[in-house]
Amino acid sequence: MARVVLGMLGLGTVGTGVVELLSKHRHLTLKKVAVKSLDKERSATPNCPLTTDVEEIINDPEIEVLVEVMGGENPTVSYLERAIKKRKHIVTANKEVLAKHGPRLFALAKEHGVAIFFEASVAGGIPLLSTIHKGLEANEIESVTGILNGTTNFILSNMEAGNSYAAALKEAQELGFAEADPTADVDGFDVAYKLSVLAALAFGHFVKPETIYKEGIRNITEEDMALAKEFGYRIKLLGTAARGSNTGSSGSTGSSGNTGFDVRVHPTLVPLDHPLASVSGPNNGILVRGHAVGQLTLIGPGAGKMPTASAVVGDLMNLAGALKLPDFASYFQPAIDASPASAVPPLAWKCPFYLRLVVKDTPGVIGKIGNIFGTHNISISTIIQRGVEGKEATVVIMTHDVLGKDMDAALDELKKCDFLSSLGNAIRIFRSA
Ligand SMILES: NC(=O)c1ccc[n+]([C@@H]2O[C@H](COP(=O)([O-])OP(=O)(O)OC[C@H]3O[C@@H](n4cnc5c(N)ncnc54)[C@H](OP(=O)(O)O)[C@@H]3O)[C@@H](O)[C@H]2O)c1
What we know:
433 residues; alpha/beta; 3 domains; 10-stranded mixed β-sheet; 33% helix; binds NADP nicotinamide-adenine-dinucleotide phosphate
């Protein structure tokens, strides 16, 4: 195989793994690696110079491929743009920069005849993107749903043992599964970026991350975990990207004028016997539904040094193998529209709900709740009350399918009622996208 010269931005968790794997692939020659600090102690150093001057890589005409594993939006996006303009192919693990700037980067790559490979940006070591892009090429992808964030899955798995959210987060941070600032993971931003990238591949449009409904896991309590289990469920943070909204229409018009897709991230009660319920710890699990193949389930390590490096180096090997083919970039590049789409707002989705309400233990409360739900088209499948007479009680309700707007209206009305001490939680129950 012909020798391919690479430059890399970043030598952190993923970059170090890439260096390790590249040592076994002599035809992939790493010429230079850019880092932030030359003084940092490193667990592994590549067999090539390090630099803090990214321009040395971008302006080097011998470097054909830029491996971007430094992360973040800025200044990364400008480095990628300039490298593309210098006709370098890109291999990146960066979902944030793709979700926010993907349409422009892909258009620029097309203009300059280069390819962007991005397997590592979603689901780490699981070959999810190549499965959708190449393995399922004969299909119209209908939906991609799953556990796309290992940090939150680790925290939720840990809470099942009775730990609080705070204790589970602390342990995740101590074990290196969560950042010191966990916001991107626990508030759903990381999953939203990944869904935008998945939508680009599955539906041909990036979805603007700011339009994606995001609900994280901060409000999940040990009590919710225990109640879910009692009712035959496990709580998971699920991301969904579906072609049409689950109201049954085949897509709706977003504010951009493009088709709006059903793209969202929120905690979900998953039945214990469902394949996603068995995905534990920092793993990822994804269901892909194609019109011809039906449903596939992929489960495996969604992050970490070597699984993510496996995806990056897999991309490099694919790229190197095909680089000299005529019209190589257009063969490999998925057809992605230059204008991003919007996600449909949550008010139009339909799914069952789990509700935990804390109420004053006075006569007639259950009837009043039933009346409010009835006026908002909400049909209750199960309702139980627990508590000490004369004090507060916990009411747990499972509903049949409800439109998001009806549930919002019912909760708004409930919040005004004297009998409600607090709205414990309202969590969606899994429904196939
Ligand atoms: N970690 C994972 O499990 C995982 C999984 C999937 C995808 N990803 C993605 O992979 C990318 C890298 O993640 P990571 O965990 O490896 O990050 P990381 O450990 O924080 O490493 C970042 C690297 O980039 C370098 N860097 C930062 N800013 C720079 C700048 N302005 N110029 C030059 N170098 C700079 C840092 O240099 P110093 O070493 O000098 O500080 C460091 O080597 C991110 O996009 C992330 O989302 C990570």
